[in-house]
Amino acid sequence: MKKKWLVPLVFATLLGACSMPVQHGSVDASGDWQPDRSIEFIAPAAAGGGWDTTARMLAKTIDENNLSDQSFGVVNKPGGGGAVAWAYIHKRNDPHNIFISSPPLHFVELAGQSPYGYKDFTPIVNLIADYGAFAVREDAKWNTLEELFADMREDPTQVTTIGVSSPGSMDHMQFILFAQAAGVDITKIRYVSDQDGGAMTSVLNGSVDVISTGVSEAAEQARAGKMKVLGITAPERLEGEFLSTLPTGIEQGIDAEFVVWRGVFGPPDMTDEQLAYYENVFKEASESPEFAEVREAYGWDERYMGPEEFSEFLDQQSVELEAALEELGFGGR
Prior knowledge:
Layout: H1 9-15, E1 26-27, E2 33-34, E3 39-43, H2 50-64, E4 72-76, H3 83-92, E5 97-101, H4 104-110, E6 122-137, H5 145-154, E7 160-163, H6 170-181, E8 190-193, H7 199-204, E9 210-214, H8 215-223, E10 227-232, E11 259-266, H9 272-287, H10 289-298, E12 301-305, H11 307-328
Parallel strand pairs: 3-4, 3-5, 7-8, 7-9
Antiparallel strand pairs: 1-2, 5-11, 6-9, 6-10, 6-11, 6-12
Helix pairs in contact: 6-11
């Protein structure tokens, strides 16, 4: 398959060395693994984003509830959409280094921008889920996703969609998956990427037709009476006085969903004992009242998955995304 992207030289340099041996920590009398120093909890982006916020709130919850004898220190390693951090974790191969991630772990690898994907690490747990939404201006002619896709089945080029993420990434692909399930020719869809904060304005001023975004962003405009949410990517309606009024794609006959999961991964060669240690810590954190308050404050849904269920979920999502990306010509592996 022809490469569509080139791995930047900096990543090649980072990845050139062989993986370091696993640093084992210690095993107590009962055979349970224990870390022998503080945990480096990597957020693969700059401070302030979703990865950073999730990692810091988890670390705070773990500390407040004394769930570990070692501290969980959040370290930001931005670059390459996460690829710099993934290279760092893979090279060190140390169970004292873990990281938070979400669907870009799929997208960056599938586009050929990083040699590392989820299978190169150890999925520990998934903790939360966000969902996407598709919204139009309040006076737009479409009132449902099916009405929108009916027009797009006739001529996909008559509708322009906008999102914050780059082509082949989150906002673009969640729209593509739903359009594909609705029978639209996804190779002809017009998608505009606006990473400078003007996407919502472009819909409101009529420059583009549809925005693919997060539920919270779309709901804010809909509450204000400026936009209509045609559908959300969740498998069922969300809780909340206003959020519960937003229809899913599934209830409109579109057999698709897209979960913006956020979970924790470890290095490639973790032992069963090391994995069990982290699974226990994060499960307790997820079930704590303190983290329930965090989820409510940030509008996150709880979607806990242990290692096996999380791995199976990632396998399924990867297959769907890879097929769609290849049809669009973004396949880079």
